[in-house]
Hints:
It is built from 8 helices and 6 strands; from the N terminus they run H-H-E-E-H-H-E-H-E-H-E-E-H-H. By secondary structure, it is α/β, with parallel strands linked by helices. Strands 1-3-2-4-6-5 form a 6-stranded mixed sheet, sandwiched between helices.
Amino acid sequence: xxxxxxxxxxxxxxxxxxxxxxxxxxxxxxxxxxxxxxxxxxxxxxxxxxxxxxxxxxxxxxxxxxxxxxxxxxxxxxxxxxxxxxxxxxxxxxxxxxxxxxxxxxxxxxxxxxxxxxxxxxxxxxxxxxxxxxxxxxxxxxxxxxxxxxxxxxxxxxxxxxxxxxxxxxxxxxxxxxxxxxxxxxxxxxxxxxxxxxxxxxxxxxxxxxxxxxxxxxxxxxxxxxxxxxxxxxxxxxxxxxxxxxxxxxxxxxx
Length: 255
Ligand code: SF4
């Protein structure tokens, strides 16, 4: 039954997914579970980088952002100190974002090639974007305990995305988080069987009917893009492959 007069089933599902994700977003943005990360994110927001001295830093957990009906979830590591932790939107305002969003645009997943601030007009189509850890960690290295503490948010987000078919894991930590979250989504038969896999850029991992595929991709951080480990061409190619699989492409054999 539709929620509003004239509203179709598709509109209804979109509205329900949007409302549920909005509620989770508000919960994540208020989280203070990891004392070390709370202290770190807030200190960065007070000290600031000189070039952003005029900014009122977000300095809170950075929730997911994107298309609530997306079949593809792009998963990063954590917000950057002066990127997401400043702007309040995942992959926004730092070098990794500049590289990734340009590639997303070329792959037909974003309406524009830039992601600078929350009011810049960026919209994703067919992809939802989030991070394995929602608060900026010192040195970009969350502890195993911090990764475990933040994981339930990812598993809940996956459950709330009604069309999810593929997770694009950007880097090793995102890859491991994806496997743990998909394990949590498994059926009773899967309980106790932890999904495992070794990260290999460009590889597709299948875990059985009803569970999303995982595509592994190097993280678009300067240490990968400036050293030639990940080129723009490789990233666009991997994004396009993940997009094709999420739309029911031929390699998605388990669906
Ligand atoms: S990293 Fe995750 S669990 Fe820890 S404080 Fe931030 S949002 Fe909460």
